[in-house]
């Protein structure tokens, strides 16, 4: 039997940083872990169309959060540009940014079941990311749930990535290599099986390989399909401190 290991956990401290960075005593450790998980879960649920790639959370104290969000559709989070003057665009963008920041504070207070506290500080940074494994998985799941045959989804995905590369001038939307695997009752067949495609190279055992990985489930009429996506971005010698 092959021994599998998670591609991201395998590279923590080498090419992957920790998504949560803080220190806590035994008394508060489990509380912080569950709170971070709640923030990520509710953001992914409420703003699903934003296509989140990563959400980094760090703390200095119990009431000081620093959240870094990487997403593709920033307009869902902080609004789109208007056709007014530059000053009004900046003011509108800052207002929507503050509203989103306030929404995150409300999520935290809701989880802690406490009243509004002015001492809580949330420092928010939002960046637009390139094509990631999570955005590719979202594209595949969206089409599978609309009962599009998986082979057609693969062809649509290739065209979608090529279109993004042309329109947004990405160096390579696919990166150096990519692998996609779909498992389950494909096209409603009675017997479950796996189907996969592969482009370029994908050295899973090379720790210096910067591999982006994402797993997602598609809920269809004939069952649940599992979608796994691996994307090789580059091979680097840069390491992160654990």
UniProtKB/TrEMBL annotation:
Belongs to the universal ribosomal protein uS3 family. InterPro entries: KH_dom-like_a/b, KH_dom_type_2, KH_sf_prok-type, Ribosomal_S3_C_sf, Ribosomal_uS3, Ribosomal_uS3_bac-typ, Ribosomal_uS3_C, Ribosomal_uS3_CS. This is Small ribosomal subunit protein uS3c. It comes from Halimeda tuna. Its main location: plastid. GO terms for molecular function: rRNA binding; structural constituent of ribosome. It is found in: Plastid, Chloroplast. Residues 140-231 form the Small ribosomal subunit protein uS3 C-terminal domain. The lineage of its organism: Eukaryota, Viridiplantae, Chlorophyta, core chlorophytes, Ulvophyceae. GO terms for cellular component: chloroplast; cytosolic small ribosomal subunit. Pfam families: KH_2, Ribosomal_S3_C. GO terms for biological process: translation. The keyword Ribonucleoprotein applies. PROSITE patterns: RIBOSOMAL_S3. Part of the 30S ribosomal subunit. Residues 39-105 form the KH type-2 domain. Keywords: Chloroplast, Plastid, Ribonucleoprotein, Ribosomal protein, RNA-binding, rRNA-binding. Signal peptide: none annotated. SUPFAM superfamilies: Prokaryotic type KH domain (KH-domain type II), Ribosomal protein S3 C-terminal domain.
